[in-house]
């Protein structure tokens, strides 16, 4: 009988926090500066420099831990993790091994077979390393220390995930929580959210974990899903051939869809952790925790429930609209301005999501003003522009945030308001299509659409199809 295998996956997710300055110095965390311009003696590891903890980093880590149902270590401390890479200026990283700020949390995720609870082992604060840039033309490697000292929270899950689908659901839930809290923008393409995948396989029914590998260099959800499928297949092939899986760190090449070994996997003892002598312990009192709890914003489940109650939206529509805090805020402003939440929801769930997909953009990159979309919705309701014309206008609003009425006027999209002109065209089309008129009189309702289409064509779209339909019905009795 052919063996069946189960995949066991745990994640180490690094989230870059949104503080304006680094975790232990006053250098900027802004992305994209010229190499080595956001640096100082502290974040470049100069002898004699001393770290000072950024309080905002603790606040963000605390907020995230509370939102993910974690326990809080009210006395936590920092440790030195020793390793010797060119991108690590001190030759150690300041992290938290022994007493992390958060522990024993969980998130519920939605999958195709229902909800699943993913446990979180811990969350800890740490500093990021620099960035190595490999120059193939000059055959050398350069180091940019701008990222060195940028604050991170590392979220370590339990090995509770069994498929790429569950992994992506967990990451999407984690990203949504971070964005709602405002603790991180979680842009994978900029490295502000990075996931390392720890994966092993075992025979179905076994309670013994297999040998795991850790995969790095995963900068999109699609790459993560492909890496999981690829590594699962690689490990099963080794076991089927009677070989052993080696515990190691592997690098995923998304172009080749293959992973290759980077180094043997280190254990905690290899890093020679010890308490950082330059940083005092952090004490988080009850009042601080209470204040952070009270400051938590309305989260996605509460917002979705409110949309159903206040705006009369379906459970599905409310859930979709609230997946992104940024889009939800744009929707709310648009709905309030136009006074028609359901129409506003249709534009966000239809055209906005379509254009996001076509343009390959993240929800947070949408920049059009709610005032312009609200004005477009109002002009459609007044019969000043038809649906086809409105979609053209909205595409311009989405891309360039144009003023809708100015664009409608400038591009001849405004519907003719002359009742006499419209009636004359309707009479002309009915006379030219006597067969279709006769079919409609005999009960063939579908020809009504054909007649409306002919009128729209004759008037070059400058009419309201609903009004034309009513005009035809009034004339054909």
From TrEMBL:
Q: What is its EC number?
A: 6.3.5.-
The reply to whether ATP-binding figures as a keyword in the UniProt entry is yes
Q: Name the domain of life.
A: Bacteria
Query: Which UniProt key words apply to this protein?
Result: ATP-binding, Ligase, Nucleotide-binding, Protein biosynthesis
List, alphabetically, the Pfam families matched.
Answer: GatB_N, GatB_Yqey
Write down the Gene3D superfamilies for this protein, in alphabetical order. Answer: 1.10.10.410, GatB domain, N-terminal subdomain (1.10.150.380)
The catalysed reaction is:
L-aspartyl-tRNA(Asn) + L-glutamine + ATP + H2O = L-asparaginyl-tRNA(Asn) + L-glutamate + ADP + phosphate + 2 H(+); L-glutamyl-tRNA(Gln) + L-glutamine + ATP + H2O = L-glutaminyl-tRNA(Gln) + L-glutamate + ADP + phosphate + H(+)
Residues forming the Asn/Gln amidotransferase domain are 329-476
Gene Ontology BP, a term: translation
Q: Does the keyword Transport apply?
A: no
Q: Which GO terms describe its molecular function?
A: ATP binding; glutaminyl-tRNA synthase (glutamine-hydrolyzing) activity
Q: Which InterPro entries match?
A: Asn/Gln-tRNA_amidoTrfase_suB/E, Asn/Gln-tRNA_Trfase_suB/E_cat, Asn/Gln_amidotransferase, Asn/Gln_tRNA_amidoTrase-B-like, GatB, GatB_C_1, GatB_Yqey_C_2, Gln-tRNA_amidoTrfase_suB_CS
* Enzyme class (EC, first level): ligase
> Record's SMART domains?
GatB_Yqey
Q: What does this protein do?
A: Allows the formation of correctly charged Asn-tRNA(Asn) or Gln-tRNA(Gln) through the transamidation of misacylated Asp-tRNA(Asn) or Glu-tRNA(Gln) in organisms which lack either or both of asparaginyl-tRNA or glutaminyl-tRNA synthetases. The reaction takes place in the presence of glutamine and ATP through an activated phospho-Asp-tRNA(Asn) or phospho-Glu-tRNA(Gln).
How does it associate, per the subunit comment?
A: Heterotrimer of A, B and C subunits.
Q: Which HAMAP family match?
A: GatB
List the NCBIfam families hit by this protein, alphabetically.
Answer: gatB, PRK05477.1-2, PRK05477.1-4
| Family named by the database record | Belongs to the GatB/GatE family. GatB subfamily.
Task: Provide the protein name.
Answer: Aspartyl/glutamyl-tRNA(Asn/Gln) amidotransferase subunit B
Q: Per the UniProt entry, what species is this protein from, by scientific name?
A: Fusicatenibacter faecihominis
Please name the taxonomic classification of the source: Bacteria, Bacillati, Bacillota, Clostridia, Lachnospirales
Q: Which gene codes for it?
A: gatB
């Amino acid at each position: 009988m052919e063996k069946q295998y189960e995949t066991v996956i745990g994640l180490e997710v690094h989230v870059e926090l949104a503080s304006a300055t680094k975790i232990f110095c006053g250098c900027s965390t802004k992305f994209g500066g010229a190499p080595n311009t956001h640096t100082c003696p502290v974040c470049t590891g100069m002898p004699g420099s001393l770290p000072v903890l950024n309080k905002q980093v603790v606040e963000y880590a605390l907020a995230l831990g509370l939102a993910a149902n974690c326990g809080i270590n009210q006395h936590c401390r920092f440790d030195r993790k020793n390793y010797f890479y060119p991108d690590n200026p001190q030759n150690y990283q300041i992290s938290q091994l022994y007493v992390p700020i958060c522990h024993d949390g969980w998130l519920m995720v939605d999958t195709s077979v229902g909800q699943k609870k993913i446990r979180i082992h811990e969350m800890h604060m740490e500093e990021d390393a620099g960035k190595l840039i490999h120059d193939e033309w000059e055959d050398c490697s350069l180091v940019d220390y701008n990222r060195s000292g940028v604050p991170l929270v590392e979220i370590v899950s339990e090995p509770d995930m069994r498929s790429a689908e569950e992994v992506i659901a967990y990451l999407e839930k984690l990203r949504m929580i971070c964005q709602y809290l405002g603790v991180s923008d979680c842009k994978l393409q900029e490295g502000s959210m990075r996931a390392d995948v720890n994966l092993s396989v075992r025979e179905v029914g076994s309670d013994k974990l297999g040998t795991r590998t850790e995969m790095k260099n995963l900068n999109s959800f699609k790459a993560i899903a492909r890496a999981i499928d690829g590594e699962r297949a690689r490990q099963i092939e080794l076991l089927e051939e009677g070989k052993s899986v080696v515990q190691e760190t592997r690098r995923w090449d998304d172009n080749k869809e293959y992973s290759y070994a980077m180094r043997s996997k280190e254990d905690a003892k290899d890093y020679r952790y010890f308490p950082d002598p330059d940083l005092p312990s952090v004490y988080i009192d009850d009042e601080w925790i209470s204040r952070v709890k009270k400051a938590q914003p309305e989260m996605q489940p509460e917002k979705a429930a409110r949309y159903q109650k206040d705006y009369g939206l379906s459970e599905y529509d409310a859930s979709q609209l609230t997946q992104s805090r940024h889009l939800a805020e744009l929707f709310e402003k648009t709905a309030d301005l136009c006074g028609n939440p359901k129409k506003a929801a249709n534009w966000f769930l239809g055209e906005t999501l379509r254009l996001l997909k076509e343009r390959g953009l993240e929800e947070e990159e949408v920049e059009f003003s709610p005032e312009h979309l609200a004005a477009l919705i109002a002009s459609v309701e007044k019969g000043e522009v038809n649906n086809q014309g409105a979609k053209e206008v909205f595409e311009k609003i989405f891309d360039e945030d144009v003023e809708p009425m100015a664009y409608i006027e400038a591009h001849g999209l405004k519907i003719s308001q002359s009742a006499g002109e419209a009636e004359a065209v309707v009479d002309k089309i009915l006379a030219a299509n006597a067969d279709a008129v006769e079919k409609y009189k005999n009960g063939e309702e579908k020809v009504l659409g054909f007649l409306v289409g002919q009128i729209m064509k004759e008037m070059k779209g400058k009419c309201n199809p609903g009004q034309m339909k009513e005009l035809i019905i009034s004339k054909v009795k």
